[in-house]
């Protein structure tokens, strides 16, 4: 009887041990599988980040085809990612492939319908194709999000031969004290009953449409910050980064508390691969940004590119995400 009891106890012990061992093995396998899955996800995130920043860098040096290839890799990792679709649209626009540019902009708007930047890009795509009717509809949405964009609304009313609407808007802007210098020639022409077909046909060219040399000449005479903004924007658009760096550096002596100058200077330095100097400039300028989320987002994006150039990918991703978060909140 005693022997039987001992045998039963031993059998129970070994059975329990076997069950526990089996459970431990299953648990270990589950943890291993989970770890593998998490590692795969982390690797995918890292791959996405690397491809995305590669696209931004290629676009910055006008390698739009290479940027598109990198962005297409991003889409295989995160299909339908708004930021990727938007970047594809911008790169195709640079290549004057308006069909693809429009297609990707519309796809991006499907997930972020009130994104100001995407809407403005889509409007530009329509403008480039001479499709002023569609451009006007998009610009109306833009103005709902940002009233400072009404200059283009007036111009598009005129291009669509909607003179009464253009005149009414000009009167409203004047009554509200929002009529900018660039709109005064339109107001004068319309109130005098002279129909102008498009802004570029006006003999009195608005300041922002003057050439870089003309703007330099005006700025030398008036030292106006408004003129300076137009000048630096022209330099940035024409990718004249050496002059942009030089002009913005000189301007900082006159306007040391203007964050836009730090942004322009940092952008120019980034484009010249002077990432450390760019980062210092951008971080200093960020202190002067007050209640301007879009400008702050622009700073974060350039800071992200500086960190990327310095191979500090964690910080690059951090500031890129900050820029995206701010733009989504603003839109």
CATH architecture of the largest domain: Alpha Horseshoe
CATH class of the largest domain: Mainly Alpha
**3D shape:** globular
Summed up, the domain count is: 3
Stretches where pLDDT is under 50 for at least 5 consecutive residues are 194-204
The CATH superfamily of the largest domain is identified as Tetratricopeptide repeat domain
The helix-and-strand class reads mainly alpha
CATH topology of the largest domain, by name, is: Serine Threonine Protein Phosphatase 5, Tetratricopeptide repeat
Roughly how many Å apart are the termini?
83 Å
Helix run count: 16
Instruction: Report the major sheet.
Output: none
Whole-angstrom Rg: 28 Å
Strand content: under 5%
State the share of residues found in helices, binned by percent: over 70%
* Residue-averaged pLDDT: 78
Order of helices and strands: HHHHHHHHHHHHHHHH
Strand tally: 0
Description:
- This protein is mainly alpha-helical and 331 residues long.
- The chain has three domains: 99 residues, Serine Threonine Protein Phosphatase 5, Tetratricopeptide repeat, CATH 1.25.40.10; 63 residues, no CATH class; 122 residues, Tetratricopeptide repeat domain (Serine Threonine Protein Phosphatase 5, Tetratricopeptide repeat, Alpha Horseshoe), CATH 1.25.40.10.
- The protein is built from 16 helices and no strands.
- α8 crosses α9 and α15 runs antiparallel to α16.
- It starts with a helix and ends with a helix.
Annotate the secondary structure layout.
Blueprint: H1 2-60, H2 64-77, H3 82-94, H4 98-111, H5 116-128, H6 132-145, H7 150-159, H8 163-175, H9 184-191, H10 212-222, H11 225-237, H12 241-254, H13 259-271, H14 275-286, H15 293-309, H16 313-330
Helix pairs in contact: 1-2, 2-3, 3-4, 4-5, 5-6, 6-7, 7-8, 8-9, 10-11, 11-12, 12-13, 13-14, 13-15, 14-15, 15-16
């Amino acid at each position: 009887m005693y022997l039987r009891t001992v045998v039963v106890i031993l059998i129970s012990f070994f059975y329990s041990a076997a069950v526990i061992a089996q459970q431990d093995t299953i648990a270990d396998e589950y943890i291993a599988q989970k770890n593998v899955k998490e590692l795969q996800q982390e690797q995918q995130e890292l791959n996405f980040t690397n491809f995305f920043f590669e696209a931004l860098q290629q676009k910055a040096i006008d390698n739009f085809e290479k940027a598109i290839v990198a962005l297409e890799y991003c889409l295989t990792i995160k299909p339908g990612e708004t930021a990727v679709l938007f970047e594809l649209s911008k790169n195709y626009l640079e290549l004057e492939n308006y069909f693809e540019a429009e297609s990707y902009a519309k796809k991006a708007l499907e997930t972020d319908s009130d994104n100001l930047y995407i809407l403005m890009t889509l409007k530009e795509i329509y403008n480039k194709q001479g499709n002023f009717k569609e451009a006007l509809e998009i610009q109306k949405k833009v103005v709902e999000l940002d009233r400072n964009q009404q200059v283009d609304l007036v111009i598009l009313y005129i291009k669509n031969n909607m003179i009464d609407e253009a005149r009414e808007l000009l009167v409203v802007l004047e009554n509200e004290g929002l009529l900018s210098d660039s709109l005064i020639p339109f107001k004068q022409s319309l109130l005098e009953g002279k129909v102008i077909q498009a802004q570029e046909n006006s003999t009195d060219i608005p300041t922002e449409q003057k050439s870089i040399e003309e703007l330099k000449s005006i700025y030398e005479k008036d030292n106006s910050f408004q003129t300076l903004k137009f000048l630096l924007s022209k330099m940035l658009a024409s990718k004249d980064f050496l002059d942009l760096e030089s002009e913005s550096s000189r301007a900082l002596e006159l306007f040391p508390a203007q964050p836009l100058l730090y942004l322009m200077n940092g952008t120019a330095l980034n484009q010249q691969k002077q990432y450390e100097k760019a980062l210092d400039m951008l971080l200093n300028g960020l202190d002067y940004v007050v209640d301007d989320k879009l400008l702050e987002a622009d700073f974060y994006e350039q800071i992200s590119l500086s960190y990327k150039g310095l191979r500090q990918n964690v910080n690059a991703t951090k500031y890129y995400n900050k820029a995206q978060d701010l733009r989504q909140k603003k839109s």
